[in-house]
Amino acid sequence: MRNLGFTLLEMLIVVALTAIMLLLAAPSMNYSSTTTSLDAIAKSIDKDIALARSQAISSGRYVTMCLSDSSFTCTTSSPASHIVFTDINSDGIYDTSDKVVAKDILNSDRFTITASNSSFMFDTTGKPSIAGTISFCPNDTSITQGYLITLLLTGAHVLTTKTC
């Protein structure tokens, strides 16, 4: 008589081996997920710095990019989002008269994001009012690579990796 199926013992061995492989792969999946998210957040903020600069040049108005809390108040640490807005009174602070150009929610519970300044304002020539940096580091101490955005007084900005 031909056996057309698997025995219970064979199935249990396959399930056990699969579980072991998943347990071994879980830490690397967490590492990959964290680094991919950190990379995406850093690139998104870098993109919004470029947007703020180009918007200032094209509109002929001051435009500000900042890390912000949930109420649109610019902050240097623990941001909930980042916003780009046309800064009507050129004060670097979001007011109700300012027009939001872009806003992105940050899911930053796994990261520490800090900025040297509470906002980065660009004039009509695309030059920032102040140079500065934004630093991104994972909260997981087993991951040592983070990112740094450096904004120069020329308006150029550079995204580089850094050791956290």
What does this structure look like?
The chain has one helix at 8-59, and strands at residues 63-68, 81-86, 99-105, 111-115, 120-122, 132-138, 145-151, 157-163. It is an alpha+beta fold and 164 residues long. It has one domain (10-163): minor pseudopilin epsh domain (minor pseudopilin epsh fold, 3-Layer(bab) Sandwich), CATH 3.55.40.10. 25% of the residues are buried.
Question: Ranges with pLDDT <50 over ≥5 residues?
Answer: none
| Main pleated-sheet profile | 4 strands, antiparallel
* Count of spatially separate domains: 1
Distance between the termini: 65 Å
The CATH class is identified as: Alpha Beta
The succession of helices and strands, N to C, reads HEEEEEEEE
Name the CATH superfamily classification. Answer: minor pseudopilin epsh domain
What is the overall shape? elongated
Q: Averaging pLDDT over every residue, what do you get?
A: 88
List the helices and strands and how they pair.
Blueprint: H1 8-59, E1 63-68, E2 81-86, E3 99-105, E4 111-115, E5 120-122, E6 132-138, E7 145-151, E8 157-163
Antiparallel strand pairs: 1-2, 1-5, 2-3, 4-6, 6-7, 7-8
Structure summarized in a few sentences:
With 164 residues, the chain is α+β, with helices and mostly antiparallel strands.
Task: Looking at this protein, list some descriptive labels.
minor pseudopilin epsh fold; about 30% helix; four-stranded antiparallel β-sheet; 8 strands; alpha+beta; about 160 residues
